[in-house]
Write a structure and sequence with these properties.
alpha/beta; Rossmann fold; 5-stranded parallel sheet; 10 strands; binds NADP nicotinamide-adenine-dinucleotide phosphate
Length: 281
Amino acid sequence: MILDGKKTSEKRLALLAEKIEESGLYPRLATVLVGEDPASQLYVRMKHKACERVGIGSIGVELDAGASTQDVLDAVHRLNDDPMISGILVQLPLPKQIDTHAVIEAVDPMKDVDGFHPTNLGRLFSGSPLFSPCTPLGVMTLLSEYGIDPAGKNTVVVGRSIEVGRPMAALLTNADATVTIAHSKTIDLASITQRAEILVAAVGRPRFVTAEMVGWGATVIDIGTNYDENGKLCGDVDFAMVETKAGAITPVPGGVGPMTIATLMENTFAAEKLRSCGPLV
Ligand code: NAP
């Protein structure tokens, strides 16, 4: 079974547009883009386009590549204080001279639709999430839409980044999966991944997960967004080979990527609902 993130995200976006219209609310997302990295510019454009589709207003703050940490902090503080803004997204990665941690920590946790603020990660890890990072949360939605319940399942997440691997493991743990996190220091990775009923790859290496690493019938989630030696977009999973063995698998493109954007829209609407209700007790 192909877990079609494109189709599922379309369905979720259509539903969200209806919910936003019915709510009478007008959520607004602010993006902060520093520099002119083409990939980052493309991602920000895609986010603004998705906003337009569902009835979320969006504003883009752009700073030049030489901006200082203080310049970015000032922009974030202005957006925190702006009562018209529901959610803030700082497009990562930031240029090297900028203290990324300081910027992430400056975002008001109530507007942190990316879910990277330590308060939101803490809430996620303590089992009471407010905003969870969009990519792993999008994976949970995709599993749920296809009726794949992680509860009790032997689940392996390869990758332990703060943005993807760790929150993925936390969401799966909260959903009662039995979770193993593997990383570059893991010994005999294949023996661990072969036992996974749900295998999530968040490694950042083209076609890293081969058929030998996957058990028969496993659900395989490919978070990777890579370009191979021919410049072709591909995931962390060798799709052509693994597809023959997996019970369910996400393609790249058209799998986790579109779910990430749909989830960002859902988080932004959630932020607006919180904002319109006043401060959380
Ligand atoms: P990252 O910060 O580079 O983390 C990669 C992780 O993979 C690290 O934990 C690393 O282990 C582990 N790793 C590297 N080589 C390994 C090996 N040989 N064996 C086992 N583990 C290994 O990357 P990321 O930000 O998590 O992103 C992962 C991938 O997801 C990238 O391709 C990225 O582009 C993609 N991504 C996609 C979306 C989307 O919307 N689809 C969103 C975000 C990211 P160590 O910790 O030991 O170094």
